[in-house]
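Now for a sample.
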Amino acid sequence: MQARKLFLLALLLASLCLTSCVQNAPKSYAAIDGNWHIAGAQDLLSRPLLTLAIGASGNTIYAYGDVAVNCESNGGGVGSSLSLTGQIASDGSFLMSNSAFPIDSIQVSIKGQVPADGSTTWMGSYTITNAASDTSCTFNQSNSFVATAYPPLDGTYAGTIAGQSPDKGLTISAQITQEPLTLIPTSSSSLVRGLKIPLSGTIKVTGSLCFTSGTTTQGTAGSTSLPVLGQVDGDTFLLNYTMNDGSDLQLNGYFADSSESELYVQNAFVFGGKCNGILGGGGNSTYSGDLTRQ
């Protein structure tokens, strides 16, 4: 009888511990981790543009991406990268913004709800205003949205990037792989990047007098301040390659559409090596062009 009572007591204590452990287990908000299209596109008629890489650490949410908006006062427009932070409530709702940092001329706040696991959409609303200290371009726009997940930026992209005529440019073929989102230790009280979605891969180049191939690697090469591994933030990308002449080739641009079938390279630069500051040996420091997924 005594053994039976001891067994029942142990079973009760185990049950209580299990219940307590389940209740105290921290919630996971990993379903929000990813690369999201919020609103708009790069062209002026489709603004405001808002695209973000988003990640959660505990109940803190981080975002880094791209914003662009047209001015109401003068017919022009402005755009920039931005970093947002906020807190996730127990019901999964959140508010993130850069409003605590008036140095940003574009102030953005986003309300949303962490989606269910496996969901590729979530609903929310945004407000985009000019900073009170910057009245050269005024705007105040608010709207609801359904965020949609960008597919991973994977594939081989090929095309020609060219500088000034008569330069024939460089023909490149870039194999790109999107790596898992990585959270970067940071403080939610400061405007710093809290996450990164790395890009890795290889590149083949024809038309350059200095290099023919390259690979993304961790760390830095050539320029000690230049991270070699690339990243994707919303609809923008950065690719850094260590080339076979020891130089660093950097490509940056944006998706031409949400399917990522075409990448537009806005700028291409070379750091170090025999072609430091130029591409192809032609004297042009900046190249641009379209790369199409093969």
